[in-house]
Structure formats: structure tokens, C-alpha cells
Predict the structure.
Amino acid sequence: MQHFNQEPQRAVPARSPCLTAEEFAAQFQACFRVSWLIARGIVGESALAEDVVQEAALIALDKLDQFRPGTNFKAWIGRTVRFTAMNHARKQRNRQAASLDANTTVPAPAGPGTAGGNARPTPDGEGSAPGGGRLFDRRIEDALQEIGELARACLLLRTVDGMKYTEIAGLLEIPEGTAMSHVHRARRFLRERLAEWLPGETEGSEAEA
Amino acid sequence: MTERTWESDGELLDAYLDGLLDVSERTAFEQRIEHEPQLRRLLSRQRQIDAALVRIYAPGNAQERVLARVRAVTSAAARRSPLVSFLGRGLAIAAVLALSATAIWFSWKSTQPSAAPPSTSYPPLNLAEAYQYEVSKGLQPGWVCKTDDEFVSAFRKRYRQPLLLAMAPAGVETIGLTYCDVVGRYATMLLARVEGTPVLVFINLARRDKGQSVDPESGLKLYQRHIGRLVLYELTPLERAHLLDLFVDPEQR
């Protein structure tokens, strides 16, 4: 019996005439930072973001014939990364929900006023994070987990990559005003949340008049 | 010119940092910064947060790792014929696994079978089929590590969790490593014999594991163990697991 030759041979899909696999690799490299920030913003965890970006690259490579030459490669790969990351984030949420259902204890994040959060380490402001700086970084990461995935991605693209709001909006397929509003709210939240951890701050956060 | 209003100093600060203020607004804001300590603190706070975000969220080594894997796949894709490239994502993923794992060799002190080229597809759909498939192939390993260090670093690189296989007792013969996606993508499989009986150990990141089971009618049994970030499953027709306890985290010893 021949199981594998009974189906008619399928046609090879037409590949984009302007983008070979090597060109894809070069373009992907140019977009890596942005892809990384989208993934990191959405899924949070660094190791998972790495998996997401790699998986998105393979998905995009497989669908290379769907890329239209002359269109924005960064937006195309960005969309693939975003969908892949949101997929993973959804699975992560489901897993967390399942573990909470099973009465698994989840350690509460330490912060000011909680166990382990009594010290007030400060960032050293030198670009590296020795000693207290590492704790401060941890506080930032914890605080960032409290804002929405898309807001996190907007903030990282604006702050870490210096991307313009119009580019962020195009990449994440949201209105420019929404991108701006996400960044503004995220910044305000971080300023308030981290006020106690910054040097020269008085107790409590300052109201932004 | 449209007149803009900023509802709070925070909003004004963001506009200042984003370069959205015109010259007169910017000058006025900078004068306020000079005279208002509270506003100065707000700016300083935001700059420290921004600096930390840049520091924390830079891709670092992830960029090199991911790009190396993607380049490996695209190089392979460029060499493939059009028909082969049609195989698409499944093959691409198999290729990246194979290429990114060329450094993995199996460590074993007594037997050193020759390394075979890795397979690029994995037909079995469940654990029982995987067992039969590997047995029918004669337990052919994809990779063989030469030293303990190679074995440890292979798992460290692949899963960020070092793993060492201790010296096996008499009657236990470990053969080599290969990949199989039956228990999840990116899983690794150890091929072994216990008193001549084929035994498989599947290794994967615990967070990727969705729980495994084996059809009782297959006559096979499944044993599980966690080591650090990893979950290990021993699939065997024997009454107890012989291999799981041989795995150790070298950094915990």
C-alpha cells in the first residue's frame, strides 16, 4: 500500500521574489531589538521572550510568501511577534489561573511595607546596577508586571528603543494617541510606585500637580 | 497654531522628555525646573527609571543566540530545493533544533557508539508510538557527548539548567541523545537499555510540560522527576525507573 503518493502533489507556494531566506535573516536582524521589546513587553519574562522571538522568526520564515515586497518588514515581523507573544501570555495566564485553582501558594512580590521590602536600596545612577541597583531593577520589573501588556510594550519601545509614537502605533496597530496615553500612564504609575525607592525622595509619593 | 494644554506636571514632563514642547514651552519648563525642587525631583525620578529600563530590557546575549539560530535555519532553507522548502514550518523548527544542538554530545564512560545524523522529522504521535519507533530504529542516537562537561553544558545552553548523568550501575547502558517533540517542542530524549530492555527518558522545561501519560495497554510505564527547571519522564516496560535517579544538577551537589 502506498499511503503517501495517493494525494495529488501540492504546488510549491510562490515565494516573495524580493526576499530570499538570507535577506529575511538580514532584515530580521535589523528588527531584532524591536521584536525583542515587543515580546519582552508582552510576556514579561526574558527567557520566554527569547523563545517568542525565535518562534515568531520561524513562523514568519515559513510564511515568507505572504510578505508583500515594498511593504514594511518591521511592521510585518512586529505583528507576528505580537501575536506569538500574546498567545504565550494567554497560556501563561491560564496556567497561573489553573495553579491558583489548585490552591498553590504564590509568593507575594516584596515591596515597601511587605516582608523583605524594608530596606530602601537606591539605584547608583551609573548605568550598572551593583548592590541596591539590582534590587531597584527588580522593583521596576515587579511594578511593570502590574500594567497591561500593550502598555508595557509601548513604554519599552518608547523608552528603550526611542521609537516615535507614530511608529509604535503602526507597529502595534493602535492609534497614536493610545500609544502616547499608554506610555504616559505607565510612566506616571512607575514614578508613583517607585518613589520610595529613589534617592532623595521623601516618604510616600509626590502628587503630580 | 493649536494651543496645547498639559493637565499635570507629569504630563508636561512627559511632553518635555518626548520632545513635544515648542521652544517657548520648553524654555518655560526648564526655568520652572531650575526654581522648583519638586519638579526637579520628578524629572530626576523619571530619568532614573528610564535609565533602569534601558539597562534591564536591553536584549543582551539573547540577540546573538536567536540570530544564530535564525541564520542557521535560513542558511539551511537557502540550500533546500523548492519542494523541500514547501515542508515549511515543521521542518524549519526541526532544522533549528538540529543545528542549534550540534554541540550536544552524550557523555558515557563505557560505550561510545558512532554519532548518527539527526532526524529532521518525528512521526510518532504519542509516547507508546515513540517507544516503538525508537526501538524499531534500533535506538539510534542523534548525538553523543564525549565528556561530562559537554553533557552538562549542552543542557545548560539548551535549557539554562545544567544536568549531569552520573555513572550508571551495571546492567544500565546509556546510548545517546536525540530530539523528539512528543512530550513538547524542544524536548530532548535519552536512549538507554536496562538489562537489554530499551528505555527512553524525555527531558524538557517544566514550564512547557502539559503533563504526560501513556496508554496502559501499551505495557509501558511512565515515571516522572523534576530537577530545577526541568521535568524528566522515564518510559519503560520495567516495574521501576532505573535512570531518573542518575540525573543530577551538578550545581546542587
Q: What stands out?
A: Chain B touches chain A through 48 residues (CB under 8 Å). The beta strands of chain B are 164-165, 172-179, 188-194, 197-205, 221-227, 230-236, 247-248.
